[in-house]
TrEMBL record:
GO molecular function: acyltransferase activity, transferring groups other than amino-acyl groups
Pfam family, one: Acetyltransf_1
The name this protein goes by in its record: N-acetyltransferase domain-containing protein
Residue ranges occupied by any N-acetyltransferase domain in the UniProt entry: 5-148
Highest taxon, organism lineage: Bacteria
InterPro entries on file: Acyl/Acetyltrans_Enzymes, Acyl_CoA_acyltransferase, GNAT_dom, YitH/HolE_GNAT
């Protein structure tokens, strides 16, 4: 490897380049997501630089001492298969250490990730549809801002490998976003967020104890934006109730990814997880 190739921490302004490259690869991006993602771990974003030019990017955020997630792995096309990407990838892995490491990889690259110690555990799918005006009324359904933050965050903690409080607060505070939850007998039983993205809106996360609650929250979210707007829904395929919602509302399958883990896999109540924040941060 040429001595002129170096790896260093990404600057916040350079993360916008990584987002642009991800968009070019067909990875859905939100106009306000970058600031939220960056806050999770500002030290967990890296660039590969050749003769002063950034040719590769990657994120490897530490959620806590036990869990991390990798994403935004892009190498400029003219520099691929020359060893630059794998050197950056290994640097990101070293930064995360012996944590459980998650990621979402395109299906055709699964065997490559196996060679780096990752194991595919299940598949996620992106679906899309057009929003409609739904009747989403019902007992306990309310704006998420009216639910005590401590109750919401405690509920979310049960459904993720590591707390993501700051990330959730940031997503909920985005302009062009709406969020709803269900609280019954002072207990949170589900919540969801819809936020602006490149070509419409994306729902995520959406977590609920039951399929009925998840569908009520979905209807509230999808019905909160102008009718006819494109809505994206990133769901784990091992949650059949989530797939059923996608099919019931006429969603089209866009593409699938493999959820991969290194150093073991977290045990989560996947039957409660209906839509993800995104493929970049899990």
């Amino acid at each position: 490897m040429a001595a002129e190739y170096t790896i260093r921490n990404m600057q916040r302004c350079e993360f916008d380049l990584a987002v642009a490259w991800a968009r070019e690869q067909g990875w859905l991006q939100g106009p306000y997501d970058a600031d939220c993602y960056w806050q999770v771990d500002p030290h967990g974003f890296f660039v590969g630089v050749l003769y002063g030019e950034i040719i590769a990017v990657i994120s490897a955020v530490r959620y806590d001492s036990s869990y991390g997630f990798m994403g935004y792995y892009v190498v400029k096309s003219e520099f691929r298969d020359r060893g630059y990407g794998i050197q950056l990838f290994n640097h990101a892995m070293a930064y995360l250490g012996d944590r459980i490491i998650g990621g979402d990889g395109v299906l055709e690259r699964v065997e490559d990730y196996r060679r780096q110690g990752f194991v595919p555990v299940y598949q996620n799918a992106r679906y899309s549809t057009k929003s409609q005006l739904f009747d989403a009324s019902g007992e306990g359904l309310r704006e998420l801002s009216t639910i005590p933050a401590a109750s919401l965050l405690a509920y979310d903690d049960v459904h993720v490998p590591a707390p993501r409080h700051q990330l959730l607060r940031c997503l909920m505070g985005q302009i062009e976003s709406r969020s709803f939850g269900i609280q019954e007998n002072n207990a949170v039983t589900g919540y969801g967020i819809i936020r602006k993205c490149d070509t419409g809106f994306r729902i995520g996360p959406l977590i609920a104890d039951t399929a009925e609650s998840a569908e009520r929250i979905y209807r509230a979210l999808a019905g909160s934006i102008p009718a006819g707007t494109t809505v994206f829904f990133d769901t784990p395929l091992i949650n059949q109730n989530a797939v059923d919602i996608a099919q019931r509302y006429g969603m089209e399958h866009v593409f699938s990814t493999a959820r991969i883990y290194a150093h073991g896999a977290p045990r989560l109540p996947m039957d409660h997880i209906y839509s993800l924040i995104g493929f970049e941060l899990g």
